[in-house]
Amino acid sequence: MDLRSYYQKAKVIHKYLKIPYIRLIRHYISHRNKLLSISINNNKIYVRFQDLFRIAALIKEGWMVIQISQNLITFQSPNNAIITCRTGIGFDIGHLVEIYLNKIYGSNFENKNIIDIGMSNGDSSIYFAKEGAKRVIGLEPDKRSFDLALKNIKESHVDNIVLPLNKALSDQTGIIELIVYDSNPNANSVDEINMVKLKGSKFKERVEAITLKEIIDLFNGENIDLLKMDCEGCEYKVLRNLPQEYFSKILNIILEYHNGLQDIPEILKKQGFSIKISETNNFMGLIIANRTIH
Known about the structure:
Blueprint: H1 3-17, H2 21-31, E1 36-40, E2 43-47, H3 49-60, E3 64-68, E4 72-76, E5 82-86, H4 92-101, E6 113-117, H5 123-130, E7 135-139, H6 143-155, E8 162-165, E9 168-170, E10 174-181, E11 202-211, H7 212-217, E12 226-229, H8 235-240, H9 244-247, E13 252-257, H10 264-270, E14 273-279, E15 285-291
Parallel strand pairs: 6-7, 6-12, 7-8, 9-11, 12-13
Antiparallel strand pairs: 1-2, 3-4, 4-5, 10-11, 13-15, 14-15
Helix pairs in contact: 1-3, 3-4
């Protein structure tokens, strides 16, 4: 990132969070890996330096901070999505910027059927519902994230559209192990080989698994307009083992891959999708797949 970009971000932080430039500079130089105490609506909260711009960017676009506790911050969007995010751990606030401001999944889901794999705190499922989706089934295996998703879905008044499932996606049903990061809940995975390798402690817990075939069956024969997958490595085994007749029910896929492309492009092309790949680095990136209709 060049100096001009840093300056532009500092201007947004200064304007919308009222943080003096000199404090930003000092913290960046000496304490950028430590939490920074800021005040919003006369309430103090500790956030990571990289989240300062994200919070300011949301406020700039009309979002309001409506509640703050020690480790949680609750936002209200212009279309009344109410989403509580964790501070100090994970990537909850970053996801809000990606989904709601950068619109990485698109913006028009009127009357669409959506499968949301890796819904975390419910942010993406709520987004799809608020943008007109007919039905959303969201999957989140981690109980802590899932409980937060239930709260956010209910408070956003989309519980008549979103069906949240506290299960892990796999190529088979049953009880499997979920690898859980203590400080990175958005990186939890059932695939130890293909998951993102991060610093920090982690542990394993047993969770119930469901197959993509079973989720598609819940739509009672209707097509899936969008399959969103962000399951930290489970995508490889799941797509390799999905029967062809179920692939034909999926019209569009937006998938984040985590350990290189491997054979995913070939699988999707074979199933009639045209694909666009956006690489973040050598290991991670986004695949947008649209079914070619003749």
